[in-house]
Amino acid sequence: MLAEAGTSIPEVPAWRPPSYWPFVAPALFVVSAVIVFPWAFTIWMSLHEWKIGAPPTFVGLANYLRLPRDTRFVESVWNTLLYTGLSVLLPVGLGTLAAVVFNTHFPLRGLIRGLFILPMMATPVAIALVWTMMFHPQLGVLNYLLSLVGISPQLWVFHPATVIPSLVLVETWQWTPLVMLIVLGGLAAIPAEPYESAQIDGATHWQVFRYISAPMIAPFIFIAAMIRMIDAVKSFDIIFAITQGGPGTASETINLYLYSVAFVYYDVGYASAIVVVFFALIVALAGSLVLIRQRTHWNEAGGAG
Amino acid sequence: MTKRRLLNAVGMAFAIFVVVSPAVLFFLWMISLSLKFEVDNATYPPSFIPPRVNWGNYAAVLNSNRFTTYFYNSLIVTGTATLFALLVGVPAGYGLARMRAHKAAGVILIARITPGLSYLIPLFLLFQWLGLLGTLWPQIIIHLVVTVPIVIWIMIGYFETTPIELEQAAVIDGATRWQVFRHVALPIARPGIAVAFILAVIFSWNNFVFGIVLAGRETRTLPVAVYNMISFDQLSWGPLAAAALLVTLPVLVLTVFAQRQIVAGLTAGAVKGG
After folding, report:
1. Is the CB of residue B247 less than 8 Å from the CB of residue B223?
2. Rounded distance, CA B76 to CA B72, Å?
3. In terms of Cα–Cα distance, which of A305, A89, A35 is closest to B119?
4. Residues 6+ away with beta carbon under 8 Å from B253
5. Judgement on whether residues A142 and A266 belong to the same structural domain of the protein
6. In sequence order, which residues have a C-beta less than 8 Å from that of residue A117 and are 6 or more positions away?
7. Do residue A40 and residue A156 come from a single domain?
8. Are residues A165 and A104 both part of a single domain?
9. Quick check: B33 and A133 CB within 8 A?
10. Burial zone of A37 (CB within 10 Å; 0-12 exposed, 13-18 middle, 19+ buried)
11. Which residues of chain A neighbour B61 with C-beta distances below 8 Å?
């Protein structure tokens, strides 16, 4: 007893965190029901030949083996990669420039920023509808604007060669603001000292951007590119509402093909296999972005040393 | 010197104009289309300012196509899915932040990466089996895929920044963990809840893909209804533009008024569901 007291038990009971599981449990149930269960069911379905109306039969990996021989799927993969590549590069480039503009002080900055982010918050289908009218070859306002600068009228989304760039135009218009916000967050976090010393040393605007701003906002540009990639690869509303994958299958991305297989042909087994491969592709693209980032990091260090 | 400053100011004003004009001109053009008579919408070159104003386009949309039904559907689906997400997501964000369960956040990340269509196939089959198709329940439940991850993600981030010392003091004073949450943590987190609420409402309201599969004629939400207008009902631009504007107007108003919260939420997590 005495010996125990000698080991000096603190008078105030120490902070012991309570169990937080009761707080998490309801959400855990919801997440299992709407996220984990669908995933498990999808993997099970992908191993079965199953058209709605007929009973499922186990076919092993047959659905997956069907994919590389399905020319429409292979084509949709290329369309997705082209669409995604352009939909990352353009918004990231323009968004970074816009962030540089918004990083200065000017009157009504808050209001103007509010107007600038409207495209990404607006309902995509409603936006798509108006773009469809603007793309109209005879009456659309875009061809009129082109005629003002002496460019001949285009067929925009009505021609296989121009449909993907036209859709990317909409995507860029819509999502440049998100890139701007992320990069602006990065610019705002840069301390003032490097700029002050650069000014004293007489650096030009370009040098300031190249050697101070650019390296410090690079991580933010990377995050913006990553988010943009994940969203562009999954893009559905805009493409579906404007072209439904057409003309023909010229703008059919994996997501649109997946929709057709699942809810037009009701081939849910095969569609599930597409889901799994699609997800793997997104993870692979994210992984390769991380790799590119690490490589350029290494180069910067090498250049400096 | 002053001349140079003036030149800089003009250059800056021009840069700002170039940056915002695509967004502003687009919405002005949308308004212009929605206010013109069919004849004026079909002229070439197009007229930017309507020669005569036709409010009839809005009247046509509001009176026909069961617009009110679809508006209520949207309200019920978005409202229920958002409130339910707050009910389970706010405590979960609190618990996960206090447990420092960063691995659990990984599940949210997977939800963020997965295409919305992937959830639709299994859940569609489930709803069909349960006989729920034809009611609003399938859409309410599947919208949780959008709203729950947004709320949890934003609340984890928010509770991580609120001080734990107050909660420790409350526990030492004999408060239960529920009282600590209800009376200490929750009041401080109100701004975070506002951000989560606004973003969940917007992304649920805008969702299209779940509706085209799960909605029947009676259970369409507004984005699905407006899409169906292009494909079936009519091809005249005035009413179409008016409908499009009415569908997205609540979101645009919310964006302008809650801009600060939206920017905070998007730069923190950049969450977009579906």
Report:
1. yes
2. 6
3. A35
4. none
5. yes
6. A177, A178, A180, A181, B255, B259, B262, B263
7. no
8. yes
9. yes
10. middle
11. none
Q: What is the DSSP string of A181-202?
A: HHHHHHHHTS-SHHHHHHHHTT
Across A56-195, the runs of DSSP E, i.e. the strands, are: 57-58
CATH number for A164: 1.10.3720.10
Measured between beta carbons, the chain B residues lying within 8 angstroms of A113 are 259, 263
Can you tell me the distance from the alpha carbon of A27 to that of B89, in angstroms, rounded to the nearest whole number?
6
Q: A13 to chain B: nearest residue by CA?
A: B172
Q: Does B49 touch chain A (CB under 8 A)?
A: no
Element (H, E) at B255: helix B237-257
The count of structural domains within chain A is 2
Residue B129 burial by Cβ neighbours in a 10 Å radius (0-12, 13-18, 19+): exposed
Q: Is residue A6 part of a domain?
A: no
Q: Is the ipTM of this complex over 0.85?
A: yes
Q: If residue A115 lies in a helix (H) or strand (E), which one and from where to where?
A: helix A109-116
CB contact under 8 A, B99 and A24: yes
B139: number of Cβ within 10 Å: 28
Q: Determine, yes or no, domain membership for A8.
A: no
Q: Does residue B231 sit at the A interface (CB-CB below 8 Å)?
A: no
Look up residue B87 and give its two tokens: 């009910």
Residues in chain A: 305
* pLDDT (tens digit per residue) in A224-241: 999 999 999 999 999 999
Q: Which of B19, B32, B145, B245 to mutate to test the interface with A (most CBs of A within 10 A)?
A: B19
Q: Which CATH class is domain B57-269?
A: mainly alpha
Distance of CA B214 to the CA centre of its chain: 19
Kindly state whether B270 is in contact with chain A, defined as any CB-CB distance less than 8 angstroms.
yes
pLDDT digits (tens, 9 = 90+) for B122-174: 999 999 999 998 899 999 999 999 999 889 988 988 898 888 888 888 888 88
How open is the CA angle A187-B200-A225, to the nearest 5 degrees? Answer: 35
